[in-house]
Amino acid sequence: MYPDSYYVATAVGITEHPTLQGAERADVCVIGGGFTGLSAALNLAEQGLDVVLLEAERIGFGASGRNGGLIGSGQRKDALEMEAQFGFERSKQFWDLAEAAKAEIRMRVARHDIECDLQYGQLEGVHKKSYVGHAARYAEALETRYDYPHARALNREETRAIVDTDGFFEGLLDTQAMSVHPLNYALGLARAACEAGVRIFENSRVTDYTRTDPAKVSTEAGHVDASFIVLGCNGYLGKLEPRVAGKIMPINNFMIATEPLGEESARKLIADRNCVHDTRFVVDYFRTSADNRLLFGGGENYRSGFPKDIAAFVRPYMLKLFPQLDYARIDYAWGGTLSVTVKRMPQVGRLKPNLFFAHGYSGHGVSIANLAGKVLAEAIGGTANRFDVMSSIKAVPFPGGTLLRYPGMVLGMLYYSLKDRI
Ligand SMILES: Cc1cc2nc3c(=O)[nH]c(=O)nc-3n(C[C@H](O)[C@H](O)[C@H](O)COP(=O)(O)OP(=O)(O)OC[C@H]3O[C@@H](n4cnc5c(N)ncnc54)[C@H](O)[C@@H]3O)c2cc1C
Predict the structure, then answer these.
(1) How high is the pLDDT of residue 398?
(2) Which of its termini does the chain have fewer beta carbons within 10 Å around, N or C?
(3) Taking a C-beta distance cutoff of 8 angstroms, is the pair 293, 261 a contact?
(4) Averaged in consecutive runs of 10 residues, what is the pLDDT profile of the chain (422 residues)?
(5) CATH number at residue 196
(6) Residue 217 lies in a domain
């Protein structure tokens, strides 16, 4: 069942797909109906392959139907951090991949006429005085070395003219980054995938698969014999694939939607329907919706459950930036699970010649998951150039593996959230 979120309440075209019963045969069995799985399935079907997609719950049930909808440029790590860690050449390769991710989303929205409120413009608000100056350096590096002239630094007043908060010392405005109603985008991809011939089964949780060729992918009520498997379960992977589970960490992140604020107040709060995130390690992110609510994400936890009162958990983060919204009723509050990696870079790879996976987008998956699915489809189709680049980042296991990774993570997060405040 879908969570009670703003996105579900405003979803366009929720379609019920059957539950898998009995035996099916396919070239590729995709596991997971989020951006990774849907993008892989659609791109595979467009190559002429016969594809079955199995989703444990509903299409877009996971992070893909619950997120902030921010489609950032670049990777989770900014290009200068990437350069310091991997050198300029690889950093540029990953920048170009992220540009391809944005292009893929733009192309899908246009080609399949997906009603998902695609908007341009993203502001990074600098929350700490000691970070001032980085925006200008970054914008210059992007323009001169990354062929990207679309980001510019804004001083405090210019930033305030876009976001009505005292919380930012300066900003970086990226006019070619975007935002989207994520569930509607996922539902649009699912419709396009069905039109391309993908057979989608919902409420069909995969319980096991064999390590054979072809593989037998089993659910409670049926199975699929497939030449290839694509694993796109991300933060919801659970125990399905222990060989990769210890290298990602599921974490929960939370969002609220205010009551409609009226067009004038919404535009005053954030100009031009830009989306915004700040420079905190546990990032605050927000934008206004088509019906003029503030959609605000902030706060996360590292346990299996969500806070009992998500609205009460997230609201203080919103009020810290926007005390003027003290009056606003919170109409929706929800959470979702994503996965992060030690290096904060996605993990894309192959466990056997016929078993591919992509996950661990570390909070940057709206763009990168959509490209990762396409890149897995390319690799299965025999073109592995981009797969080779994406899979070149070697995964590092979390200390303590699946059992003990949480205590280490909590300590690490406490350290960074303290750093955010100092
Ligand atoms: C609250 C929140 C806010 C976020 N905001 C942003 C943002 O603004 N920008 C950004 O870039 N990223 C954001 N993210 C991260 C982003 O949403 C994810 O990186 C992205 O959606 C991952 O897509 P996915 O398809 O890999 O995983 P998911 O969308 O989580 O899909 C995985 C699917 O696999 C299914 N599944 C799991 N196990 C099985 C099984 N055994 N059998 C069958 N199906 C199975 C699940 O039910 C699920 O539907 C946010 C995440 C959250 C939770």
Answers:
(1) 83
(2) C
(3) yes
(4) 97 96 98 98 98 98 98 96 95 98 98 98 97 97 98 98 98 98 98 98 98 97 98 97 94 98 98 97 96 96 91 98 98 97 95 97 97 98 97 86 62 60 58
(5) 3.50.50.60
(6) yes
What residue's CA is closest to ligand 1, atom 16? 365
Does the residue 238 lie in any domain?
yes
At 404 the pLDDT is 59
- Number of residues written out for the chain: 422
Q: What is the pLDDT of residue 271?
A: 98
Measure 54 CA to ligand 1 centroid, in angstroms: 15
Output the pLDDT for position 65: 98
Contacts of range 286-291, beta carbons closer than 8 Å, 24 or more positions apart? 286/68, 286/318, 286/321, 287/68, 287/69, 287/70, 287/119, 287/179, 288/261, 289/6, 289/10, 289/117, 289/181, 289/257, 290/10, 290/117, 290/181, 291/10, 291/260
Pocket test for ligand 1, best of 67, 280, 375 (most atoms within 8 A of CB): 67
Instruction: Specify the residue with its C-alpha closest to ligand 1, atom 52.
Output: 67
* SS3 letters across 91-130: HHHHHHHHHHHHHHHHHHHHHCCCCCCCEEEEEEEECCHH
> Which three-class secondary structure state does DSSP give residue 396?
coil
CA 363 to ligand 1 centroid distance, Å: 10
User: Which of the listed residues 64, 124, 253, 301 should we mutate to test ligand 1's pocket, taking the one with most ligand atoms within 8 A of CB?
Assistant: 64
| Distance between Cα 422 and ligand 1 center (Å) | 31
Q: What is residue 76's predicted lDDT score, i.e. its pLDDT?
A: 94
Query: How many structural domains is the chain composed of?
Result: 1
Please report whether residue 17 resides in a domain.
Answer: yes
* pLDDT score of 414: 60
Q: Can you give the residue range of the structural domain that contains 393?
A: 6-66+183-245+343-410
Is residue 95, in this structure, part of any structural domain at all?
Answer: no
Q: Record the pTM.
A: 0.96
Contact 137, 402 (CB under 8 A): no
Q: Is the CB–ligand 1 distance for residue 6 below 6 Å? A: no
